[in-house]
Amino acid sequence: MNEVHICPVCKAEYQELPEKCNRCGFPFNASELEKSHYVAHQILKEGNISDTKDNIMQSRIILLFIAVLNIVFPFITYYNSPNATVVIGFSVIIGLIFLVFAFTAKKIPFLSLLIPLVMLIIIYSIEFIIDPYLLLNGISWKLVYIIFLSYSLYRIYKSNKIKKESEHLSKKDYK
Q1: Could you report the per-residue pLDDT of 101-136, keeping only the tens digit for each?
Q2: How far apart are the first and last CA of the chain?
Q3: Which of 8, 52, 63, 168 is the most exposed place for a label (fewest CB within 10 A)?
């Protein structure tokens, strides 16, 4: 009776022991050290994909926070100003756009984070042109938003690259 060989990483079954697993590339004929090294790298890659899911969730919370700030804050700050309707209307529209992206980030994370990041950079640039003090007001929060959304995009990119390199890991999902 033929012995069935099972890949320790992806659980693929083989009647004859191959040099490498066809699905994940596990080196069956390598030394124990090389096998351990390979398994460790696979675990790190899986962890990267899993961490990306958490990172997307945190980005969604940031987008929700930005949306709420844009929808609520202008009513408090600009209700007596002469341009209140325009400022409040513009801010609510921006807030609603961020709200939509916060909800779509689960299904299409890269675009749903890229577009708000670009929007923030444009909005902050316009604020700087209008009045440089506006950009400095809350600069630490603005930097946190930009850095965190940029980092989330990097994590998504890195996870997609890992998934393209391995058939086994391509089935792991961060969405």
Answers
A1: 999 999 999 999 999 999 999 999 998 898 888 878
A2: 43
A3: 8
Tokens 């191959």 sit on residue: 18
pLDDT score recorded for residue 125: 92
Return the structure tokens found at 76.
């408090």
Domain boundaries, the chain: 50-170
Residue 131's contacts (CB-CB under 8 Å, 6 or more residues apart) are: none
Burial class of residue 19 in the structure, from the number of CB atoms within 10 Å of its CB (0-12 exposed, 13-18 middle, 19+ buried): exposed
**34-64 tens-digit pLDDT:** 989 988 988 898 888 889 989 999 999 999 9
For helices 139-165 and 109-130, give the axis angle rounded to 10 degrees: 150
Contact in structure between 100 and 66 (CB atoms under 8 Å): no
Residue 13: strand pairing partners: 6
CA dist., res. 152 & res. 142, Å (int): 15
CB-CB contact of 120 with 142 (8 Å): yes
In angstroms, rounded to a whole number, what is the distance separating the alpha carbons of residues 82 and 94? 20
Output the 3-class SS for 120-162.
HHHHHHHHHHHCHHHHHCCHHHHHHHHHHHHHHHHHHHHHHHH
Question: 48 — phi, psi (to 5°)?
Answer: -60, -45
